[in-house]
Backbone:
């Protein structure tokens, strides 16, 4: 589903990371940990073709990102990738249902029934017409998860999705995130500092300046 080979990224003369190898199978849940500043968010952006790199390759569902033009990468992202960020990034002037519907509209696949199904699946059924400012942090992140998965992407990239949440809300949100990915066969790459968030991962990896290493195989 996602294959990264010998990926290296520099800022000026300084390597952020080097020689990163990673292969994520369809439906697999891989958690990536690592010290602050080691390049986890940068690596996630490379996986989505949102950032550039200096050597190595990134393939998403067989497509090599380094040789693709920007509009082709944007189309691949819209079709095959979902994102969840620490800061939610829910659009403030759209209600909950409209936020969740957005990826389908961008794909010209308007589908109210699908939006309804996702809202119900994430416990947001009664909140569809609320504006984001009327929601709690945990509810906002569940909106972001519903939006990230509404178009059934093959790959979900999540950057510290529980970083702004208290531990019990974080557990509920992680349960929703992992449950939905498992149910839909979506591969999940999760960047996190939280060992609680990695508990259900198939593999936990650690990004270091020298590359990626296993942090203990869990299955
Ligand atoms: N535009 C830039 N120019 C120079 N250095 C940058 C730039 N953007 C990011 N960096 C550096 O790249 C490194 C990787 O940043 P990144 O945010 O990917 O790390 P991270 O592992 O996700 O950190 P954290 O866990 O704190 O979120 C950091 O040391 C950062 O200072």
Residues:
């Amino acid at each position: 589903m996602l294959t990264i080979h010998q990926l290296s990224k520099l800022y000026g003369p300084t390597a952020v990371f080097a020689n990163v190898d990673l292969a994520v199978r369809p439906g697999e849940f891989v958690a990536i940990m690592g010290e602050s500043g080691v390049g986890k968010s940068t690596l996630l952006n490379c996986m989505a073709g949102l950032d550039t790199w200096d050597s190595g390759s990134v393939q998403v569902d067989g497509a090599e990102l380094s040789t693709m033009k920007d509009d082709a990468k944007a189309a691949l992202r819209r079709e095959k990738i979902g994102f969840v960020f620490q800061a939610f990034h829910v659009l403030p002037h759209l209600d909950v249902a409209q936020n969740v519907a957005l990826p389908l509209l961008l794909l010209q696949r308007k589908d109210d029934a699908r939006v309804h199904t996702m809202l119900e699946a994430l416990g947001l059924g009664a909140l569809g017409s609320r504006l984001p400012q009327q929601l709690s942090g945990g509810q906002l992140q569940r909106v972001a998860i519903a939006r990230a998965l509404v178009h059934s992407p093959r790959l979900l990239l999540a950057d510290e999705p529980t970083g702004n949440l208290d531990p019990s809300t974080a557990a509920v949100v992680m349960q929703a995130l992992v449950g939905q990915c498992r149910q839909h066969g979506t591969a999940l790459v999760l960047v996190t500092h939280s060992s609680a968030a990695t508990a259900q991962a198939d593999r936990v990896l650690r990004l270091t300046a020298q590359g990626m290493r296993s942090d203990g195989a869990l299955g």
Summary: The longest strand covers residues 14-24. The domain at 2-217 is CATH 3.40.50.300 (Rossmann fold).
